[in-house]
Specification:
- This protein is mostly helical and about 100 residues long.
- It contains two helices and no strands.
- It is rod-shaped.
- The two termini are about 30 Å apart.
- Keywords: Coiled coil.
- It comes from Haloarcula terrestris.
- This is DUF8136 domain-containing protein.
Length: about 100
């Protein structure tokens, strides 16, 4: 496998792992919100459980945002690297001045 092919395969694995992680977080978020919105509160114990589900939902949403930000940063890094490689191939220095 060439370096370009292996890098492309690695990028697909990274994208797949982000997608898998986000799918899991989506499922957890949906379940936590369902528990919060559809739960009936009859006593203090049920309210404590409901509060725990609210915290879980908050944590899942925060983690999902982090994963999405990491994925976006990874994609931007890859695009920058591709642009730099293309610029190097065109004989243009990073500053935009032809060498």
């Amino acid at each position: 496998m060439t370096e370009d092919a292996s890098a492309h395969a690695r990028e697909e694995d990274d994208a797949g792992s982000y997608d898998d992680l986000l799918a899991t977080l989506d499922m957890l978020e949906t379940e936590a919100l369902r528990k919060v919105e559809n739960g009936r509160v009859y006593d203090a114990e049920n309210e404590r459980v409901r509060i725990k589900w609210i915290r879980i939902a908050k944590d899942v949403i925060a983690e999902k945002r982090k994963v999405m930000a990491d994925r976006d940063l990874q994609e931007l890094t890859e695009r920058i690297e591709q642009l730099e490689e293309r610029a190097d191939g065109d004989g243009v220095a990073p500053s935009g001045v032809r060498s």
